[in-house]
Amino acid sequence: MTDENRKRPDRSDTPTADLRSERDLFLAKFTRGARITDEFLKEYENLARRSQSLEAENAILRAQVEADEALRDMMRKIEQLEQEKADLLSRFRRVEAQSTTVSARVEEVEAEFANLANLFVASNQIHSSLSPRGVTRRIKEVLAQFVGAERYAMYLVNPNGNELVPIASEGVPGNKLLPVRVANSAIGEAFQGAVVVVNDDVSPSTGTLEQPAAVIPLSIDERVVGAVAIFSTLSQKTRFDTVDFELFKLLGQHAAAALVSASLFVQADRKLPGLEAFLDLSV
Amino acid sequence: MADYSCLIVEDSPMMRQLLVFALARVKNLRVTEADDGVDGLRKLASARYDIIVTDINMPIMDGLKLVKRVRSDPVHKDTPIVIITTEGSQEDRQRALQLGANAYITKPIQAPQVIATVKELLRIE
Question: What is the bridge-based pairing of β-strands B4-9 and B51-55?
């Protein structure tokens, strides 16, 4: 123990140079450790803040990704719906086209039905009477009501075959209704040719006695026995249609036969033929 | 069972037959025929009809008189009436419409036109 230490007993001994150096070293280390700790703490706080910030950013990004996903889903859905819409439109157009075709077909069938109804009724009516007057009235009615004829006459050929004699008419003054020579006349031309002659040059409503709108030869079993001349039609009739030509054919084939049958029936005093008249009909 | 009933008043058997044929195409429509106006009134007195189709020119009682009588009948005053006229008889047509007819068809008649007119007045699709 040194003297200095003995004089100040309440004080510790002055450290040796080694201890001082060791203390200084320790203090320096401690101070550095404290500083490092402070730095660590600050770094930790920074990292914690950064982490929080990144987490927040991450959350935003995740939300955005989710939103993008939803958007993509929605886009996919829209695409699907667009495709479905296109399919439906395509199907609709196909069905519409089919419907138009069906409607047109229905219209055709209805028109065909109307024509057949006219033909059936005309044929039925012509053969529903066994009096020459009744048959004539019905033929006239077919001409007026179905064909729309306004002025017309029915002729039968004379026994010499050179003249057509009027037997019934409508809308023609009596003094103008004269027998017509077969040769060199419009009516005679149809009679001789055994074909319907239609004057295509003018509207049927403006036909004349000399130039009838149509002439229909009347036949019985391929033999032409007369003719119907339609001089003019009602004003609203501007042309003859398909059904008119069918009616002309029907009149040509049935009118004379019905008229002759009715005449023969009257000549036979309206007596039905005996059974023997039908016995040899087996074919 | 028929949903609708129609009375055809027409003196010409041929036209009647044609009208019956045409109207047979209208579903659930029962058709009754009358020979002239008097026969028509007789049938109207014994039954109710949803529509009447009548010719104008008829013997005994013509279509104009029939229209007038029908419109004064409390039972049939609102029954639709279709008249059949010729193109030339515009005066008759006007008179019939004034008396209360609802529509007209011009001769020569066409089945599709008859069907369309009757369906329209009965409001059938």
Answer: parallel
For residue range A16-75, list pLDDT tens digits in order.
788 888 888 899 999 999 999 999 999 999 999 999 999 999 999 999 998 999 999 999
The helix/strand/coil state of A130 is coil
DSSP string covering B32-97, please? EEESSHHHHHHHHHHS--SEEEEES--SSS-HHHHHHHHHT-TTTTTS-EEEEE-TT-HHHHHHHH
pLDDT value at residue A16 = 77
Q: Which helix (H) or strand (E) holds A106?
A: helix A17-126
Ordered DSSP codes for A242-257: HHHHHHHHHHHHHHHH
Residue A128: which residues within 8 A CB-CB, separation 6 or more? Answer: A138, B13
Taking CB atoms and an 8 Å cutoff, what residues of chain B touch A148? 107-108
> Coil, helix or strand for A30?
helix
With CB atoms and an 8 Å threshold, state whether A121 touches B106. Answer: no
pTM of the predicted model, to two decimals?
0.72
Residues 75-94 of A with CB under 8 A from B: none
B25 interfaces chain A, CB cutoff of 8 Å: yes
From the CA of A118, how many Å to the nearest CA of chain B? Answer: 7
Write down the architecture of domain B4-122 according to CATH.
3-Layer(aba) Sandwich (3.40)
Instruction: Give the tens place of pLDDT for each residue, A208-256.
Output: 998 999 999 999 988 999 999 999 998 888 899 888 999 999 999 999 9
For B10, half-sphere exposure in the C-beta direction (CA atoms, 13 angstrom radius) is 26
B48 touches chain A (CB under 8 A): no
Contacts of B106 in chain A (CB under 8 A): 236
Reference A196, options A251, A153, A233, A145; nearest CA is A251
Distance between CA atoms of A238 and B86, rounded to whole angstroms? 15
- In the chain, the amino acid numbered B69 is R
- Asked if B59 reaches chain A (Cβ–Cβ under 8 Å), the answer is no
Tell me which residue in A111, A124, A145 faces B108 most closely, judged by beta carbons. A145
* Residue in the block written with tokens 């055809």: B8
Residues of A in contact with B109 (CB under 8 A): 145
Does residue A88 register a pLDDT over 60?
Answer: yes
Spell out which residues of chain B touch residue A123, defining contact as CB-CB under 8 Å.
Answer: none
Q: Is A236 on the interface with B (CB under 8 A)?
A: yes
